[in-house]
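Before relying on records like the one below, remember that each one covers exactly one chain. Contacts with other chains, cofactors or solvent are not represented anywhere in the record.
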Amino acid sequence: MRCATAATIGLALMMLSGADGANEAAGGGLMGRIKLPPGFKIEVYAENVPKARSMALSESGVLFVGVRNGSRVYAVVDEDGDFRADRVHVIAEGLNSPNGVALRDGDLYVAEIHRVIRFDDIEKHLTDPPKPVVVNDTLPRDGHHGWKFIRFGPDGKLYVPVGAPCNICWRQDDERYASILRMNPDGSDLEVFAHGVRNTVGFDWHPKTRELWFTDNGRDNLGDDVPPDELNRAPKAGMHFGYPFRHGRGLKDPEFGERKPADLATTPAEQPLGSHVAALGMRFYTGKMFPTAYRGQIFIAEHGSWNRTDKIGYRISLVRLDKKGRTKSYEPFAEGFHRGDRVWGRPVDVEVMADGSMLVSDDYAGAIYRITYDETATTAPSESPTR
């Protein structure tokens, strides 16, 4: 099944958005609306991937995609190498919010709410997937913040978060809540790696230091502008990142701030992000297609606010690091997925392809986009590109 061009998505968005959307769709659809720095271009890589969320890309280029509000896992295949997907296979269905996907030694790991399962030798069985093997089914069953992003770390362990089962609470009965866990590939030796993490749905390791960095969604119901979402850095196991006692860079929670144990040291956010932007997937850019100023920097998919007077997020943002590996700026990279209260797309995850281009999943449009850079289209940007 050949994936259609951006104009096809434009027609769908026109139906969703009414006359105003129709006018803009006629001018190039969603892809024509996205603002990027000079030299960058965004195109449709795949459509017909309903509710596309977290992604995992195999060495051969097969893209596996999980969903949150659904039960399927997909395999997106570009058969002829033209960077447009030709087929979308359903790898599994009937699962419980299979948001997280990860690959190891040819096997596909999938995270449901309460368990992690594995599909062995998956690329040889895209049309006849095997029955899954249960890796670990001892995780909490709470649906609230129960969907999971998973990845294998440089240590060979599978990292699995367990979100807080609430907006704001302190579950002293089970240390796994509001944490990032890790386990062996066979599901054994499950342990807490990081505490005080309200709900992370995206993380990556620094390509040089191998330190874990992750996004975290701030609590709700404190107003439009507090607390911030967060980008955090965990150079070692056992750190506590504040929830539910502290937010951002030390903001006391009005309900739990005074209840913080006196001997508990909490780590402030490495980079406060926009309040309620819903920062999800993140990646260090490790490719070579983008200009030097973007290499080794962090791209974050901001899904967009649902509980703010004026919507924010709905974009890909960029966090720049200094020579010491600490954050120095936070800026938009790809914008235009919404205007005012009208929404046309909601980025969820980002993934770097072998050629250095970047894939972006969008669960609102049910699509995957590809961002490329053409050095002949413009002069390569300096440290802070103009828009």
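The chain has one domain: 38-373.
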